[in-house]
Amino acid sequence: MQVMRRETRSAERLEWDTRASEALEQARQMPPGPQRNEALKEASRLRCSADARGLVFAKRGRPPK
Question: Which of 5, 19, 21, 54 has its CA 20 to 30 A from that of 44?
Answer without folding.
Answer: 5
